[in-house]
Amino acid sequence: MARTIRWPLVARRFHKWLALLVGVQVVxxxxxxxxxxxxxxxxxxxxxxxxAASARAVDLxxxxxxxxxxxxxxxxxxxxLQHHLDRPVWRAETPDGAALFDARSGQPLPRPTEADIRxxxxxxxxxxxxxxxxxxxxxxxxxxxxxxxxxxxxxxxxWNRPTFYLSPATGELISRxxxxxxIFDFAWMLHIMDYDARTDVNxxxxxxxxxxxxxxxxxxxxxxxxxxxxxxxxxxxxxxAI
Amino acid sequence: MKRIRLSPxxxxxxxxxxxxxxxxxxxxxxxxxxxxxxxDKDAVGGHDMPAExxxxxxTQTSLIAPAALxxxxxxxGLALRTLAGRPVYELRTANGIxxxxxxxxxxxxxxxxxxxxxxxxxxxxxxxxxxxxAKPNLEAREHKGAMWRVDFADAANxxxxxxADTGRLLVMRGDTWRMWDFFxxxxxxxxxxxxxxxxxxxxVVAFGVLWLSGTGFYLLFxxxxxxxxxxxxRRRRVVAKPVG
Lengths: 242, 244
Hints:
The complex is a heterodimer of chains A (242) and B (244).
Chain A lengths: L6 H32 L2 H4 L21 H7 L5 E7 L2 E8 L2 E6 L11 H11 L6 E7 L13 E6 L6 E4 L6 E5 L1 H14 L11 H24 L3 H11 L1
Antiparallel strand pairs in A: 1-2, 2-3, 4-5, 5-6, 6-7
Chain B lengths: L7 H31 L2 H4 L30 E9 L2 E8 L2 E6 L5 E2 L3 H9 L6 E7 L13 E6 L6 E5 L5 E5 L1 H14 L11 H24 L6 H11 L4
Antiparallel strand pairs in B: 1-2, 2-3, 3-4, 5-6, 6-7, 7-8
Helix pairs in contact in B: 1-4, 1-5
């Protein structure tokens, strides 16, 4: 026997069962998405925590020739003249990371001490809070993601727990973190459904959930056809019937 | 006037009306999100451009000393690096950036040939065309200033962008990135510059869609009854029945 298909019922069933499947995740997507659009990304990146370094004139007289450093280290891809605690240095970029050399003598600089790290962090920090703790980490915390340790962790006082990470080799700022960033990262984890590394935007769970949500949204749009009954037409029909 | 009652009917009405007005954007978010999850992130690339293969600086060649570098304006920065395989000094002055050959002190300009050589260090495919851009286009929007665009004749239709002042490789884009970027535009609703997801339009729509998902979640509890789950119980009964 041929049964007439009741399309509104089909669409409604589709919509509600898909919603049962991904409803919780859709709520999480809209909530985390809302957080991400409301808090400006520059704030999340912590631009306001860092004081812009002022460009200083460089005096090239008395600077050690780069060939002296290149003779000491063979794998340097770039040498940059910089200031490190008010002294000119050559910063050498190598496959194993960066290293500093005294720009006058060409000799390698000793690694910054904890006192140096404190001073460097203090200079870079644009806020007013005091340093709460300074630690040399050999294991990367979650918030440093794929960055390779070791690094110095400098925490400042403040409601959003601003934290700087500095390189043990050069003392330069690698990352800055604060509570709004940490919330963003958590929201991002929920948004892309990668609960381990928080970086894989191609994971199968996300793919299944996103297409299910798309099907749910499409069936919802389909339902809209019958969601707003046209009263005027009905009236006309009724009038005709009379 | 009728009193508004907190009833499933009210939530259903909110759900319907928000769905009617903002549903299309929710659908586009779901579609663009699905597509971005589908496009392989390694093929999309471009986010953290691993700069040109960092070639080591020569250790045997004698380079001119920094003190011998002449500059018309005070120097605010100096770097020794490689440019298309040769060691160069990059000088920053108030008048801009100058590139000087570190072996003979000759000033260098980043012309089309140089840009092509820099781009070739990251892609071996034949070059289709080289074009100078006075301003960054959408594909190189994260960078500033004039640049060269080097198009390759490869499967991905890759384009390398090379800074016109420093000659550094800025970014490489391909067709997968281009498709990804279209869906990213749909997702961030910044249809002109595609860069920001913190503009008023998206904030307002996202706030509205919170009502769509919130009422929808509530309605889940009102839309199912025991009859809907009868199939589960039936199956259990079948399983429980002894065979034969």
